[in-house]
Amino acid sequence: MRHKSQANNFFTPSALSYYPIFLNLQGKKCVVVGGGHVAFRKVRMLLESGAEVTVISPTLHPDLAPLAERKAIHLIQRNYRSGDLKGAILVFAATDVKKSNHRVAEDAKKTGRLVNVVDDPGPSDFIVPSFFRRENLIIAVSTEGVSPALARKIRTKLEENIGGEYASFLALIGKVRSLLKDKGLRVDAADWQQALDLDVLIPLVQSGRLEKAKTILLKKLRVHKTI
What we know:
The protein is α/β, with parallel strands linked by helices. It contains nine helices and nine strands.
């Protein structure tokens, strides 16, 4: 009975239980309502993800103006109006007026668009984690809106310890997986976990001995013939 109770508790969502997910925003329209420093951070993140960004605000942060001048973003330099969210996949309400942000959130929800209200997880459909990239490797940290400062602190600590060698190691793993696939071989998830001995392999990658790392990794992997 105790085990059954624990299982039931495990699958009971909290009041705010977010599902972590990465979105492909390449070429998709996203709207940021607001033109301050927070809005600029959201815009920069969206542009890095390849999104087509529209900014709606009568005033602009100094770093947003150059983006508008070189057409990196589409600027609507006025106050937000209903109907401005047409065609958007994601919406960020990032003004410094709570009432204005909630109006944007209400409009987004009425039209079935996902919205994030800065510093206010209550009306938000999603939150944005603190993250950093090492090429294809993305490390994301979230406190579900309880303390963005702690999320950034943890991210910084991880960022200091996870360098470019992990991106190189990831590329090597990709080559090994392709090699095995071409040979009709597969490796179970548990065997991958055992074979990825970071204490041994990462120092080899750091010192540029990629072929040695590849050889050791292949020896550690338990391969099976695909059917």
